[in-house]
Amino acid sequence: MIHILGQNNSIFNQFIYEIRDENIQKDSMRFRRNMERLGEIFAYEISKHLDWENKEVNTPLGMLEIPVLKSQPVVASILRAGLPVHQGFLNYFDKAENAFVSAYRKPSRIGLFEIQIEYASSPDLTGKTLILCDPMLATGSSMVLTYKELISKSTPEHTHIVAVLASVQGVEYVQKHINSSKITLWIGAVDDELTAEAYIVPGLGDAGDLAFGNKM
Question: Structurally, what CATH architecture does the domain formed by 2-212 represent?
Fold first, then answer.
């Protein structure tokens, strides 16, 4: 199943506009905050699909039952670009466990690259809900490898894969290589093209650099 939040008019699209705008995105603090806001909206929408139970609460004037989450999800992100979106999820799922994976593009030969994973840290995912977030879903390779790394030792009950911006190719790659009824894709907006260097067009540029500065 795939949900594309930008298809419906909401404040979500205001933040998508601002992270894409080449003038607004020069303010790295604002870029990070907008990514965080987008993570918050994704969290709210995903929360509607989690398990709930009624719990009694005593107010100063009485008692009533209110639906609350049965359990908090595990929030995972790909370092470093995924950190602002990750924080947006933690603002809402404030008791969530966390997982982190370091993945980067390693040039293999002219015009091509392979995804290299150097580090992964995760709690036991058995029977839990996993939310795996990253700003960009370009080729889809890093998302698929990260997911497979996370489930190599334990299997979640359900996984929500989140990308703020995606390419058509990236979405298709994930759907092909993670073919499971226990996966839900959440996308902000889908762009049609990838450059020869596998950057999304029109996209927004390098999300990690815009959030944290240029890398060597």
Answer: 3-Layer(aba) Sandwich (3.40)
